[in-house]
Amino acid sequence: MALCERLKQFLAQEKAPYDLLPHTQVFTAQEVAAQSHVTGWHLAKVVVVRDEAGGAYMVAIPAPSLLDIAAVQRATGKAKLRIAHEEDFRTLFPDCETGAMPPFGNLYGVPVYVDASLTRSREFVFQAGSHKEAVRMSYADYERLAKPAVGEFAAREAVKRA
């Protein structure tokens, strides 16, 4: 699967410039960053969370980061959120390979949130619906098209494990 058709058509319709970054098949955000020759801090890793009623929320954080789910709860006003299961991805993002959805929740009827650290770069990179391609575009164009809510959603400290 190549750049998902929905995203491709949307970017063309909006005349948004972007670079397609083909790479070998990889499955983690850090691997995508390495294959795309960018730092993980400039690669948007998409995490999807669900609320108790089944509502979905898309959160883009830097690849090396962990999600601060409490921050997402505060931003959404939802007291109980959980990380979505892979089965949810197939329903929510049917034209994307599982786990490779781009951070354009607006194309899927899903509110999108972006960690503020990603807004500080001129460009950023994200998966394009495929485990073999990424997209690089200006953050300003992304923000204009996706209209994300911006906040502090990446955990700032590593999680301690017992």
Strand fraction equals 25-35%
Low-confidence stretches: 158-162
N-to-C order of helices and strands:
HEHEEHEHEEEHE
Profile the largest sheet: 8 strands, mixed
Radius of gyration: 15 Å
Q: What's the CATH class, please?
A: Alpha Beta
CATH structural fold name: YbaK protein
Task: Let me know the average pLDDT.
Answer: 91
Write down the domain tally.
1
Distance from first to last alpha carbon: 40 Å
Overall geometric form: globular
CATH evolutionary superfamily = YbaK/aminoacyl-tRNA synthetase-associated domain
Relevant terms:
162 residues, alpha/beta, YbaK protein, 5 helices, 8 strands, 24% helix, 25% strand, globular, disordered C terminus
What would your notes on this structure say?
The chain is α/β, with parallel strands linked by helices. The chain has one domain: YbaK protein, CATH 3.90.960. The chain is built from 5 helices and 8 strands; from the N terminus they run αβαββαβαβββαβ. The protein has helices at 5-13, 29-35, 69-76, 86-92, 139-146, and strands at 19-22, 43-51, 56-62, 81-83, 112-115, 123-127, 133-138, 149-151. Strands 1, 2, 3, 4, 5, 6, 7 and 8 form an 8-stranded mixed sheet that branches. The radius of gyration is 15 Å and the shape is globular. The relative contact order is 0.25.
